[in-house]
Specification:
The protein has about 375 residues and is an alpha/beta fold. It has one domain: Alpha/Beta hydrolase fold, catalytic domain (Rossmann fold). The chain is built from 10 helices and 12 strands.
């Protein structure tokens, strides 16, 4: 586990994190003049009650409550001779797997309970553009949760400068062979449950998690996406519903809530439509529609009802739950009013000033890590 010895260390971690840190990018966020909170294209008042309007969807719960009873699918590693407890548990950085002649790196965290011989769930923990393993471990804190909740965390490193994951959600995504080989190795070397493998990530890592859900739907049971999503195109196997949880801030200064790419991201990617001194989002969306539209497309892909049930969470967050979906899955969407490009509830991100221009406001009214894990527990792949 990474030890954050001081607030200055935490700030440095966050300042390097995920996201697309750009020179000259500055954004400001304000509330509507009438005191309401901007969510989507219109200003809406967050309700002051935690009870949804009565109706057919009123039985939908404000937090995930399901726990899958599907039988585990033990990996091949469960029948191998187990290593000593000292070697088999804890954080194991710099694990290697070679794909097409290229050596790739990942960090493996195995909880102390590994010695009991029970196959454990696996959570992939994917960093954002320009980020790395250590920063994602610190920001998400999945390993700390795994120590008590008994699941394996795999935090891989993207390639390139800046480090990144495949950009598009299609079968030719260049990172798919890596993730296939990575999961093969984790399954062979550890006793894990191949029915309970999940992916979560921020920004570019959320996009990659989307691609894994679509292109490796026979291995990924559910995804948790923070400030990063792609549309449900070319998903395989056809007709498979995918449980999806999404977190997004309405004042995201990197991947705008209303679609497109920020000026700074265009600069990093070398796309037209901006200058080095421009902070205004592009008028082109470059294949990134408004977030509300993409979440609704996932709900439609999963066969959910068209209208979500809304739950207020404190004063800053509204949760929208699409239910009635195929195979009893759900699509849960947390909209953070005036929130920025960050991981909700992250102690590292909360250490930043709330007016930070690049990352924006981090809410403490939801804990994305805890909610994502609670959501994942409701789903497993069938045999």
């Amino acid at each position: 586990m990474i030890g954050l010895r001081s607030r200055s260390v935490a700030v440095r971690f966050a300042a390097l994190l995920l996201a697309l840190v750009f020179v000259g990018v500055a954004c400001s966020s304000t509330n509507s003049s009438d005191g309401s909170t901007g969510i989507g294209d219109t200003a809406v008042e967050l309700p002051d009650t935690t009870t949804p309007d009565p109706g057919p969807a009123a039985a939908v719960t404000a937090e995930p409550t399901g726990v899958s009873t599907a039988p585990p699918r033990p990996s091949s590693g469960c029948s191998a001779t187990p290593p000593t407890p000292e070697a088999s548990t804890g954080a194991q950085p710099d694990q290697k797997v070679t794909v097409d002649g290229v050596e790739r790196t990942y960090r493996l965290y195995v909880p102390p309970s590994a010695g009991d011989g029970q196959p454990m769930p696996v959570v992939l923990n994917l960093h954002g553009l320009t980020s790395n393993i250590d920063q994602q471990v610190a920001v998400s804190q999945f390993e700390a949760l795994a120590a008590t909740e008994d699941f394996v965390v795999v935090t891989p490193q993207g390639l390139g400068a800046p480090a990144r994951w495949g950009f598009k959600n299609d079968p030719q995504n260049e990172d798919l062979p890596f993730f296939s080989a990575l999961l093969d190795q984790v399954e062979a070397q550890n006793c894990v449950d191949t029915a309970r493998m999940y992916s979560s990530g921020i920004s570019n890592g959320g996009m990659m998690s989307t691609t894994l859900a679509c292109q490796m739907g026979d291995r990924i049971a559910a995804v948790g996406l923070v400030s990063g999503i792609r549309q449900p195109d070319d998903c395989t196997p056809t007709g498979k519903a995918t449980p999806v949880m999404v977190f997004w801030g309405t004042k995201d200064a990197v991947l705008p809530y209303d679609g497109g790419l920020s000026a700074g991201l265009l600069l990093v990617l070398g796309l037209p439509g901006t200058t080095s001194s421009s902070a205004a989002p592009s008028t082109q969306n470059y294949g990134f529609p408004p977030v509300e539209q993409v979440v609704a497309e996932w709900a439609a892909h999963d066969g959910c009802g068209a209208e979500p049930t809304a739950f207020p969470v404190g004063t800053e967050v509204e949760e929208r739950v699409y239910s009635g979906c195929t195979d009893a899955v759900e699509v849960r969407f947390y909209v953070v009013a005036d929130g920025g490009h960050n991981w909700p509830g992250s102690k590292v991100m909360l250490g930043l000033d709330r007016s930070n221009a690049v990352f924006g406001i981090t809410t403490d009214q939801v804990d994305a890590t805890a909610l994502i894990w609670k959501f994942f527990q409701g789903y497993a792949l069938s045999s």
